[in-house]
Design goal:
Layout: H1 3-15, H2 55-65, E1 74-75, E2 78-79, E3 85-89, E4 96-100, H3 111-121, E5 126-127, E6 156-160, E7 163-168, H4 175-183, H5 210-220, H6 229-244, E8 252-256, E9 262-266, H7 267-285, H8 287-297, E10 298-299
Antiparallel strand pairs: 1-2, 3-4, 5-10, 6-7, 8-9
């Protein structure tokens, strides 16, 4: 082989370095073609920007073509640490760029813009399997999931495979807001999970919102591009209204109100009012909680 051909081959490999950055991102690919004009010199084909190989495909391709892939993981021509980094996307161009696999701090941008950006940058997002950290400190029954932000302790811990546990605390309405809704007469009882039933004269378990709120907790804690805060909140409202529908239409709850006077109310109507007010409050002020949970439970890619 002439010196000129050898030098041309070296230049071809160097020029293809940025293109190799795509390899290893997904398993959807075809074998790239050989380098035109350089038959039989044992060089791999140039990996086209839209193509990539998983580990098994890379090994098979290397065996068939008597070649080696560049050592280490790459993304957009840059080496990455596979334990903490991965190939995401530029939110504007969609082109590959290096991203941190795990978030260790909450960003300063507001929840709506943060989630829009994160979905664009991390189309391969998945449930986080990171160990406890400053954002996701603990998940222990009887203790607050995040002591600095949460009002209520965890009630149920649910395993989710190798991902972080689901931490269920039921309805997360802040204590001051629960008290205000009770004082204003929206809630019959000063109870975040069962505002029209868990008290003397109350309807009981059928009016409880706990299961509805537990499902809402899971929704916030499930990393899904297709499910945003509004979808979670609207499902919560539907579930709460379904709980209210189990109350007999003419049921009356007799109780002592917050000023110590006897009172009575139509239980189903009060239940529906409480559900709608809780939903309205979530829509107006629940974005920080959504952002916190998705930050805790999402990682950019595997």
């Amino acid at each position: 082989m002439s010196l000129i051909r050898i030098l041309f081959a070296i230049c071809a490999l160097t020029a293809s370095g940025a293109l190799w950055a795509q390899c290893g991102v997904t398993s959807s690919c075809t074998d790239p073609p050989g380098i035109p004009g350089l038959p039989g010199i044992g060089l791999p084909g140039v990996c086209n920007p839209g193509m990539c190989l998983n580990d098994a495909a890379k090994a098979e391709y290397a065996r068939k073509n008597h070649c080696k892939f560049p050592a280490g993981d790459m993304c957009a021509g840059q080496p990455i640490k596979p334990s903490t980094q991965c190939c995401g996307a530029n939110r504007f161009s969609g082109k590959p760029e290096v991203h941190d696999k795990f978030q260790t701090v909450e960003s300063g941008i507001n929840a709506l813009h943060w989630w829009t950006a994160y979905k664009a940058e991390c189309p391969g997002m998945t449930q986080s399997g990171a160990p406890p950290d400053a954002l996701w400190a603990q998940c222990v029954p009887g203790q607050k999931h995040n002591p600095s932000k949460d009002d209520w302790p965890v009630v149920i811990v649910e395993k989710n495979g190798a991902s972080r546990d689901y931490c269920i605390d039921g309805c997360s309405t802040p204590k001051s807001v629960v008290w205000g809704l009770w004082k204003s007469g929206v809630f019959i009882f000063n109870d975040k999970d069962n505002p029209t039933g868990n008290g003397p004269g109350g309807i009981g378990a059928t009016s409880s919102f706990f299961n509805s709120c537990a499902a809402h907790d899971r929704c916030f804690q499930t990393c899904s591009i297709g499910t945003d805060q509004s979808a979670c909140d609207n499902k919560l409202l539907a579930d709460m209204l379904a709980a209210c529908a189990t109350i007999p239409p003419a049921h009356i709850t007799t109780f002592i109100n917050f000023i110590g006077q006897p009172d009575d109310e139509n239980t189903r109507k009060k239940c529906i009012g409480a559900a709608k007010d809780m939903h309205t409050g979530l829509q107006a002020a629940g974005s920080p909680a959504f952002k916190t949970r998705r930050t805790q439970y999402c990682q950019c890619c595997k």
